[in-house]
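Re: weekly structure request thread

Next one in the queue (348 aa):
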Amino acid sequence: MKRQANFEILRVVAMAMIVAMHFMLKGGIAVPMSDDGSAVNHLAWIIEALCIVAANCYVLISGYFLVEKEWKLKKLISLVAQVLFYSLLVPLVCLLMGIGDVAKWTVYEWIFAVLPLQMDHYWFATSYVLLFMLVPVLAPGVKQLSKKQLQITIGVLLFYYCVIKSLSPILLSTDNYGYDLGWFICLFLIAAYIRLYGIPFFEGIKKSISIYLVSCAGIFGISAIAGFICRKTGALKYYMDMPYCYNYFLTLIGSVALFYVFKQWRVKEGTVIRLISQIAPYTFGVYLLHENLAIRNLWPSWLGVEEVKGSPLFVLQMLFAVIIVFVFGIIVDFVRKKLFGLFDKKEV
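Done, posted below.
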């Protein structure tokens, strides 16, 4: 299936958003609003609100195409091999070069490298691979349902995973904030519904942009109000973080809206667009590299996060970090794919 440039651009944008969020959160720029009500911290959380839709969008892209695409065992094996490549190689390189504290890792920590999916080394990769395993069941199942049946199925799942959680002032025992397979299945079904039937509410680029921005403003606004109340009274500390969950209702709406922005964008071919389309397949490698257990809390410091804490200049440093992580990650995954290509001679 030919790659569509608009979705490839969204894939790149989504991964850039993920790197930006990790720079601010792991670098200590975005701290709880219950602890810091400064303008700089609020700016960081505004950017977080604009970026929090990224992971959902990444899954929506996959679901949109996988519902119609032929499923292959070879692709599953390739995904698992890609995850293992990074989970094993990065710690070994760090160990040999004396980077971080890998030399102090216990046997238990090395198991995270050897069994990354079972140990949830990368939560996104674990949920994504499990979702891919279920595609041969989910995709045909979706097509066997009527439009009404699919609507009911999605509605029931969203009520369980999204609606109740979004309204609850307390932590629900079964809520994993969208960091799980159940939520990815919801997103897959929504993407499949969009592919098969569309959602008229989001149609029109200007309208979908407006819905995305309003959703992000709501995410920040609700969290900021809860943070202010928490600073004054100590209440609502739990709910302050809820709008920044993947399965919060505003995050879901914003994710679908941004997905629709790019879905409706008719991209004109050109050198830059072709380049973006070529690097898009390597974005998963960017994630697996910078989120590796051995370096996930180190690279923000390497890229100057300490120098911009408390300053609005963190925005420029964040953009610089995103570019560096992206360039390095794309190069590494390009090399990885070439190496895999040496052993990839037969269709599975």
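The radius of gyration is 20 Å. The chain has a mean pLDDT of 94.
Next request, please.
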